[in-house]
């Protein structure tokens, strides 16, 4: 593989990690009753949401994860998770802020994943796939850890579709010669807008329906045949 021509700035990667850690901690702090989590549990969820996307991205690219090459990733994710716990009471009354934060997070990880995949020479379709996996990876790990149905596999508000739309737009722009930075900004914006519109207007993909095939032979065999009486 050729050396990458685009490197994600450390501050930008840490921004995604921090926002993901904050969003994950806010999510985990919302559990009540027997499902409530202690400080360590909330912190772990925040850390996994913050770092999960980047870990999955680098593993798919067969790279040593960036988050394991610097102290700042884990420190940022932990600090953001702790901040999320402290502000949980405030943010629980600001549901719109949590939704907007979630949309930005998947946009960031999707854009960073696709950009890095393209920089390492992957074709456009696998690059988009890597970006989508990076975008939804933290949420998948979160749901698995807390024992919830994985959100992207159920009827919902277009998580993966929003991420895929942003990744596709980013890829098209880069292939067309637009700079990686501008392409990433546009891709993040597209993902964020699609996700927010899906939540506001309650949009989702059509629910699967079991397809039935008419079994004519069976159906007709159940029809009574009236025979004329014997003369």
Automatic annotation (TrEMBL):
Keywords per UniProt: Cell membrane, Membrane, Transmembrane, Transmembrane helix
One Pfam family matching this protein: Gly_transporter
Keyword set includes Transmembrane: yes
Membrane topology: Multi-pass membrane protein
Domain Glycine transporter: 10-87, 100-173
Protein family membership: Belongs to the UPF0126 family.
Protein name (Swiss-Prot/TrEMBL): TRIC cation channel family protein
Species this chain originates from: Microbacterium candidum
Record lineage: Bacteria, Bacillati, Actinomycetota, Actinomycetes, Micrococcales
